[in-house]
Amino acid sequence: MPLCRPPRPSRSARLLATAALAGVLALTAAGCGMTSSKGRNDDVTGSIGSSSAPPAPRSEAEWRRSLDIWGERYKRNPGDVDAAINYARALRATEQRAQAVAVLEQTSMRSPNNMALSGAYGRALADAGQYAQALEALGKAHTPDNPDWRILNAQGAVLDQMGRHAEAQKHYTSALKIMPDEPSVLSNLAMSYVLMKDLKRAEEALRQAVSQPGASPKVRQNLALVVGLQGRFDEAEKIAAAELPPSEAEANVTYLRQMLAQQGDWKKKGGKPVVQRPDTGT
């Protein structure tokens, strides 16, 4: 019996749905990714702006307000680094990726040595599928003698999208040395393992991630997917539904079943696992 999409899925269900990407080609496509139709609601790595940057908006309406506020400030002064970073952040969240790149490119010409700006530019380039340029920009966002775990995490995510999984995992490991047990890094590391079809190590990393206080909902959703990929469907459904109201739990389980059905199709075709692409942060 085919599985039907609920009429209005919950936010957590939509986040789970973003994991259903059609193999590695879709994993690396500029049009696919973590941003849903409701905007990027999970700030897994914190702000990449200055210390004065505001917390991430939590709804589409808040993102739209942020877009207006920072857009006006940027237009008044395109050299304002904080304005450019936060305006681009809102543009990315509302799926205006090319414009985000253009904004940060212009401001980077005025402030080529600003590390926070380089980090934002690198993430925007990655969102737009310009991975080589993204790595170059991210490389300017910190230094070997003073590495930033958020940038290492973003670099790992870009390398994974380029299919360079072993290199990506080295970056995640370095990030974890600076920020042990950081759930966003562990989740990216786990997805890297999935792409190498090492589901056991992926599950271990995700279980470690979900045990941390700062773990986002999508970390638990990734764990449900990885458990399901190993054929433990009942356990996967329990994980997907945990700590949610009944309506949201039902929607999450429905999406999980859809993704696992898609995974079965890819196995028949000899493809790679269907996973959500690693997250470069906001």
Give a verbal description of the structure.
The protein has helices at residues 11-17, 23-27, 60-76, 81-93, 97-110, 115-127, 131-139, 149-161, 165-178, 183-195, 199-210, 217-229, 233-241, 246-268. The chain has 282 residues and is mainly alpha-helical. The chain has one domain (11-268): Alpha Horseshoe (Serine Threonine Protein Phosphatase 5, Tetratricopeptide repeat), CATH 1.25.40.10. Helix 12 runs antiparallel to helix 13 (233-241) and helix 12 (217-229) packs across helix 14. The chain is globular and about 55 Å long. It starts with 10 loop residues before the first helix and ends in a 14-residue tail after the last helix. Residues 1-53 have low confidence and may be disordered.
